[in-house]
Amino acid sequence: MWPSVEPEKILHGKAQLVVDVRSPAEFAHAHIPGAISLPLFSNEERAVVGKIYKENGHDAAVSKGLSIAGPKAADLVDTIRRLAGDKEVLLHCWRGGMRSASVAMLLQLAGIRGRVLKGGYKAYRRMVLGAFEKPFRIQILGGYTGSGKTAVLRELAATGQQVIDLEGLAKHKGSAFGNLEDAAQPGTEQFENDLFEQLQTIDPEKTLWLEDESHSIGRVFIPEAWWRQMRQAPVLFLHIPVEARATWLVKDYTEAAPGVQAVEKALEKIRKRLGGQHYQEALELFRNGLLKEAATKALYYYDKAYLYGLSSRAEDTITYQEEPMVDPLIISKNIIEKYAYKFE
């Protein structure tokens, strides 16, 4: 029988082929980043086996499972052999039970080397959630909407600073206008897995830059323990005039090139908080092609909302940096020049 391996021993890289033999629905819900899906049972077959287990017990369920999986065995082994090449295979199912054990036995008979993930995906998830409790030297980059924070973080990363782009992982820019391109967001569980994998590349003794976010980014929620660390971390707040930020937003809009309906739908989301009069004015300005003026109206709402969130932080944790315009390269250079001693 193949040996088992603890989740902490998963190799993050090209040396290992992680094979997820859970059903397609289980994999689609969330999975280990980089894993490939080679299900032993389809969604329907898994449901049938589960029903038999409940009604007739373990032996009957195993018998049915073998009858379903048997005809697939040769193709499954051939596929894994082809994909693995010289890599070690790491197999897992939900709890490290019958599904992964059965496939491991087949692969061993075929002379393919590998191991089984002890405790399965369930154990991996336990490790993921525990990782967010560990302390990191988080530094938050704050600023009103339109300050180009994400672009500034990219420039900081180019200088060698440790950065994780939470909005990139969530596939959302963190506002009503954050999904104008209608990109599909991952679920919260998959977001957590992806964040955990990025944390494996981070030195916890060095500064880690994150953008200031709400607890949710679109439909994705930041893990509670990680969110607490973010709220307690120091903030470098970019203070940039509204006119400059409106110009940046128009540039973002032009590059994204969303449809008219997408923008109007985004405005509708903030209608109540923007106020009826401001909403109508912003909508008319947008429809008349006055994008900068429309963006300035929308910023009226976002500035108030952001200021409210900032006020809940301890004042002595906030450092303000005045910038006349949104130029991510210059802003990142100014940050390094002024505060490099803090981020070593």
How is the secondary structure organized here?
Blueprint: E1 4-5, E2 16-20, H1 24-29, E3 36-37, H2 43-56, H3 58-69, H4 73-84, E4 88-92, H5 98-109, E5 114-117, H6 120-131, E6 137-143, H7 149-158, E7 162-163, H8 166-170, H9 188-199, E8 207-211, E9 216-217, E10 220-221, H10 224-232, E11 235-239, H11 242-256, H12 260-269, H13 271-274, H14 276-287, H15 291-311, E12 318-322, H16 328-339
Helix pairs in contact: 2-3, 7-16, 11-15, 12-14, 14-15
Task: Provide a concise account of the structure shown.
The protein is α/β, with parallel strands linked by helices.
Describe the structure.
By secondary structure, the chain is of the alpha/beta class. It folds into two domains: 4-129, Rhodanese-like domain (Oxidized Rhodanese, domain 1), CATH 3.40.250.10; 135-342, 3-Layer(aba) Sandwich (Rossmann fold). Helices cover 52% and strands 13% of the residues. The protein has helices spanning 24-29, 43-56, 58-69, 73-84, 98-109, 120-131, 149-158, 166-170, 188-199, 224-232, 242-256, 260-269, 271-274, 276-287, 291-311, 328-339, and strands at residues 4-5, 16-20, 36-37, 88-92, 114-117, 137-143, 162-163, 207-211, 216-217, 220-221, 235-239, 318-322. The chain has a five-stranded parallel β-sheet. The protein has a five-stranded parallel β-sheet with strand order 7-8-6-11-12, covered by helices on one side. Strands 9-10 form a two-stranded antiparallel sheet. It starts with a strand and ends in a 5-residue tail after the last helix. The mean pLDDT is 89.
